[in-house]
Fold this sequence. Notes:
Chain A is an all-alpha fold. Chain A is built from 13 helices and three strands. Chain A has a two-stranded antiparallel ribbon.
Amino acid sequence: MRARLYRLNWVDVVLNTFRIVIIVAVIVGAFNTITSGKYTGDQWVSLIMSGLAQGSIYALIALGYTLVYGILLMINFAHGEVFMAGAYTAYFLATYSARKGWLESQPLLTILSWILLAALVSMGVAVLLERVAYRPLRGAPRLVPLITAIGASFFLQYTFKGLYGSAFRTYPEVAALKGSVEMGGAQIPVVQIFVFLAAVVLMVGLYWIVEKTKRGKAMRAVSENKEVARLMGIDIDKVIVFTFMLGGALAGAAGVINGLYRPQGVNFFMGFFPGIKAFTAAVLGGIGNVPGAFLGGILLGVIESLGPNLVLDGLGIPAANQLKDVIAFTMLVLVLIFRPQGILGERLAEKRA
Amino acid sequence: MSDNILEVKQLVKRFGGLVAVDHLDYELPRGSICSIIGPNGAGKTSFFNCLTGFYSIDEGDVIFDVYSLKGLEPFQVTRLGIARTFQNIRLFGNMTAIENIMVGQEPHLHSSWIGTILGTPGTRREEQMVEEEARRLLRFVGLRGKGDMLAKNLPYGDQRRLEIGRALASKPKLLLLDEPTAGMNPAETLQTTQFIQRLRDELGITILLIEHDMKVVMGISEKVTVLDYGKKLAEGTPEEIQNDPRVIEAYLGRGAAQMMAEAA
Amino acid sequence: MHENRTLDWRPLLRAGLLAGIVPLYTAAIGMVEVFNAREVVQGLLTLGEMLVIFPSLVVGYLVALGLRRSGSNPLVTLASALIAGFIAALPVTLLVLINAAIPLRGMFVSVTPKLIEILLFEQEQMLTGLALLIGALTLAGGLGGLAAFIPDRFRRALIVSLVVVILSGLLSEFIKQILQQFISRSLLKQIVKGKSLTSQAAAAIFVVTYLVSLFWSTKGQDVKSWYAGLPAAQQRQSRRVWRGILGIFLLLLPWIMGPYLSEVIDNVGLYVIMGLGLNIAVGWAGLLDLGYVTNFAVGAYITGVLISTGPLGIGARLGIDPLNFWMIIPIAILAAMFTGFVFALPVLRMRGDYLAIATLGFGEIIRLLALSDWLKPYIGGAQGILFISKPDLPGLAELLPLADWAPGFVELAQKKGVLSGLLKLLFYGEFSGPQELYYVILAGALLVLFVALRLNNSRTGRQWMAMREDEDAASAVGIDITLTKVLAFTVSAASGGLAGAIFASKVGTIFPNSFSLLVSINVLSLIIIGGMGSIPGIVVGALALIGLPELLREFSEFRLLLYGALLVVMMLVRPEGLWPSPVIRREMAAVEEESEEPPPTDKGTPETPQALHSLWEPTD
Ligand SMILES: Nc1ncnc2c1ncn2[C@@H]1O[C@H](COP(=O)(O)OP(=O)(O)OP(=O)(O)O)[C@@H](O)[C@H]1O
Ligand SMILES: [Mg+2]
């Protein structure tokens, strides 16, 4: 005699229903918008382009999450603040150099100097963070460093509020990046192209470092297996510090690039939302995966840019652009539910018992 | 109802390309003590994990009593009457020893959170009984007086015992022990062996254990099964297994087996 | 062992510079200047100056203590302390000098002329000022060093009484608020002047606490053992008396404290309610929920919509009579529980850290939706919901013809004073101000406390904790992880809803911006800093994290900075929190009662067959 215990897993049922509702809403919304013909092709192109630009900034920040996660398996929740530190500090150099006229005479060099400064500051903050807040907690239960990171995030925000004040600042205008070029009938601002290209260059540079240099190889070895790497004579601490430096430098650079793209809103709080969105991007691409972070960033930028007009508008939601951030956060939750391993990540192995 | 409490049919568990358990057939007679041995990575723990719902079963089936265990979650398996311990002890470290055992009685509890908040008589009675039972079990596994210590602060041997106590608290019909004497000294090992024997003799619990210590295995098992690369290599009484050249070979490599054969 | 006579420079430099970072940092972020507005002891010491000087004192003390322990020569020890104090002065000196050369204010907004003035002790001449600054810090180092030479007992008393003086100095405004209801103005002026303690009051407090703590350190053990020696019945009775006193104190609290402080206590109470709720998810079940504000918002908005008399209330929109506050409470709780349940579903399968981020996402989604024009017709968008009524009850005066029976009583209730406020509340039943609302909050907090205590020590509580400790092992003992998680989120949400309902009715108007991530972070911080999973820890945490910053408005500017720093420091040095949860003793009592049985055998030999068989007696 034999009996079977069948059990319909109700959580699966709920989640799948949820998934279907979302998919239907997206399809209906997009269909309505497109058939209504409210937006022209040019408008879509320029939405996509601005999504690409914004996305490449997310991507640069996301790299920091991914690098640290790859090695320490921890979410550096304060990474958004690392970005803010560089962006905010470089703002002062930016206004100074604009006032001195250097920006007019030597735009490229001047912007490079901003990026350099921002990268250095962010790097310093990231390294300090690692040394003070994370290193003593290696090996603690997973949630402990996360709580520390949340604490550090607020600490950094309000430290910079104290240092630089709480006013909203604006990056100077860069004449060289004004204007736009025509692409497929749409006018694409030069600055968007610049942002995208700059991000690609930095990304390729990072890829080269991780894949080809000795340090990068050590990093990959540590992320494969710390114990084995240690036995091979790799100094784990050094590798970790180097990882934070790389992530910090990219975040700082992203800070300046962000300032060029969206000059307003330089403030102590400016890192928080980009930080969470970049984390979303990192998970979306597959956390721990370098090309994944880039892909995820771009994808998130585009979705966030298209979403309100394409989907929400079509669903009859007024003032859909207010809900841009809702789209990003919804993406975050959806990815965490349905594909925590991300696009390029592999399925996580079954837990060992 | 058959005489076998557990019947495993053509069980397969894969991890990517690796086949951890490979078309395994296994029968466990009711009321027996049986052992599984095998070199490191042979798939013994994976086998346990498949039985207890920790790993999903890729192919084949497991019948416990009359129930198929395929697709069940660990807590359902436990509620059917299979309890287990872990190879690397997994207690609730920041709970006291007695609380660990109280949690272990989970499959037999009925009180709900609403009843708890309202303080219904049934809930109170149950709580009292759970506590008494836990005290009794503590004594039973030899931890009397250590009940208020946090589990993580107990010495190693006590932790192993507490884990068995926690498993017993669910009043299992079948107890799966994953290397219960690992890390114990000879005296402790002997005690544990006797203890296991008595669990069966006096409580009638069927016991299946994974063990590396041959003395333990040979001393108490009625049937020994050797796994290698997820497959059943040999099965029989302890004497049969001890003299099986294939087993020696699996453990020590081919050359060693030949040497032993030549020496014999 | 030979005496160490030489100075060891490297550790001194490190310690000194580490201590020097504190004045530099606090000056650069503006803390020194803001805190300078608060005098601790009148005309003697401001909080800002303390930030500059104290690190030197501490580093001098620590350096000297370390050297004394390792058996160094007293002179070397003292010199080291002085040097450490001196080194600690260097970073901030450098700040002053650099600022003199290149004004830093364009970038570092807090480096104001006022700050420099404070750092230079109000000296006109920079050099004299600097000399004073360096001199003061060096001296402080030396003083700290001297403290290391005081015998243990006296030193502890000294530290305790210093801390008490500083604390009472900080809280002097609060002390004043309380005292002014009881003592005459002229006497009050002798104790507190402006916002600080007078020097004679500070001295008196110092002497008294010094003597008390000295007495306690010598005789405290005796008192404790005397108490332990009392018969159990007497102990129980004295505990009952204490509880009674505490009860009366809690009942009279708002009238002792006055309206302003009652407001503070109300806020603390609301956070205690939320803390106890979130603790179920975070402290017991181990689910790091960063979106707790969702439940608070749902409770508040439900309340707003259902009892507002404004245009968004159901009265205006549907023509139904607005509900009354007491009916709202269960509705708000159930609504929050439902939200908790719904938001639990998507995160059930997530790993701990992803769960934290996802819940944070939920909180933000809710806030953004509340802000949006889309939902504006229903919940008011950025303008929020107005005209939310306060709770009221039929008072005695309405129920009974009191005015006829005892006009004197009614008159008394109109007067000012500790008891008349309470009487007025009893007679008219209007919870109009913070002092009256306190009772609603107290009742809510007690209710939640009761539920939390019941659950803590129960099957459900143990399921949560087992899940927190090890999910796999928990499911191996038969716990349905899915249900247990959902239940934790659902029950935890309930008190968020309760707090939200009370909050909405208390403030009368709610905006989306009252429901930002910061609420979640506040609640989380107070749980973690108080002691995760610990019920008394939550009360302590709420008092320290919510109460203190409201009492000291200077602090509130740096509130999140301090929370952040505290979270990090706590995780690094004391992850169990200020007041960790006690271990519940279940076995010892029972073992003592049956002490005629043989003592525990350490051998682990299975015991008598009776014990074995008793195991299998049916339990139900
Ligand atoms: N969750 C998992 N993911 C991937 N591979 C796994 C997993 N669990 C086990 N394996 C692999 O399956 C094989 C069998 O492992 P298992 O733990 O069952 O061996 P074992 O017989 O218990 O060994 P030991 O004596 O060391 O305990 C090993 O190669 C192991 O690496
Ligand atoms: Mg194993």
